[in-house]
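Let us work through a complete example step by step.
Step 1: write down the sequence.
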Amino acid sequence: MSTETETPASKAEEQWFGHPKGLFFLAFTEVWERFSFYGMMALLVLYMVNQLFLPGHVENILGFAGFRNGLESLMGPLSPLALASMIFGLYTGFVYFTPVLGGLIADRWIGQRNAVVIGALLMCAGHLAMAFDQTFLAALTLLVVGSGFLKGNISAQVGALYSAGDEAGRTRGFAIFSMSINFGAVFGPLVCGALAQYYGWHYGFGAAAIFMLAGLVTYLIGYRHLAKKSVRRSQRTQPLSSADWRILRALMVVMAITIFHSTSYYQLYGVFKIWLQDHVDLGVGSLTIPVPWYQSLDALVSIIAVPFLFALWRRQAGRRGEPGDLSKIGIGACIAAASYLFLVAGILVADGAAVHPLWPALCCIGFGVSFIYYWPTLLALVSRAAPASVNATMMGIAFMSIFVSNLLVGWIGQFYEKMSPEEFWLMQSAIAAGGGVAILLFSGRLRRALHTASPQPMRPSAMTIEVES
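Step 2: predict the structure and record it as tokens.
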């Protein structure tokens, strides 16, 4: 099989702080891009329900009548909230599907650097199109396609900055890159949420467009410091053995189990926001807490929790043993299930009155911790256990589980209006708990299947820990 390699751009004169200059341009590009992505996503459901789908706006959306008829022919009649949930699920789901196609196009035809530029331009256009009712569907399409070109290809360029033997440097480089993702996930909703609440929706979306434009400019400035493509070389691929196939089947089962957790987790980005604005007392003194700020809390906790969890796992390793990968995934699902119970407790304590803002904050804190238990662990498990010849493919399939989860998030959101809030959040808790139960039932067989894996080096892809997916 012939593959295309990258020429590392890591000569001594091109290094900053012991890393290639290109790493920092990629990291800052990702900061701006994640600012825009999470800032826009924090507003999307609220914007659709509170303005776009109201009379005087919804009839202005180009192509919307046909689009809605198509959805309702499959799902039945949809209220504005149910419709917003479905569109949110489709948008966030396909954001994780299109990078597979974007990576294929980049590898086969246009190259990773050109793909990132195209993706950034499309996403800038998409964010600008969000400023107008008429171009709403076009805006989402541009953002989905643009993300497909940008998301996977910018991450791949991080690894290409380092020579083949510099595994330690590459791993540290991905750790730096992952922090840029988390930084954007925290501050994007804070900035865009405040602008939308105090100045109007389009100021929030406009800020997301400016962030994306800043990312494009940063990338173009650092373009010459990135790895250049070299000639194709021949590479033989070892056929998969029966043991390899057994490992792959086990990994696919683990990914399917994490869909339970991901489905409950990403509902925080969906109708959770509608529940917040309708049922939670968001006034704290003279301040009204912007609803999107809760999304930043989850992201912030997932950063802060990392050193504490690492210390806990080291302590457990020195005593009765650190939990294995499957156990951590199961623990994460249980923490997610318990997190939704904070919402139920808040509703019961309020007894018909507005819920205190501390209860949803505790829920978001719990999910921030649960995320670290399950998602990085899944990536690390796949990176270590998957056979080398299909390692990158399996990493892509792991992200496809988020695609499935977000489609389910959109579909499940339509039941919010048909249930009481406490029933809905209990259902979400049960979904997350289903992942924990599945791990408990199948962990023995899965461990035996994965134990046959020949040792694999830690792939740098497992170091890219994204707070959303």
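Step 3: interpret the result. The radius of gyration is 22 Å.
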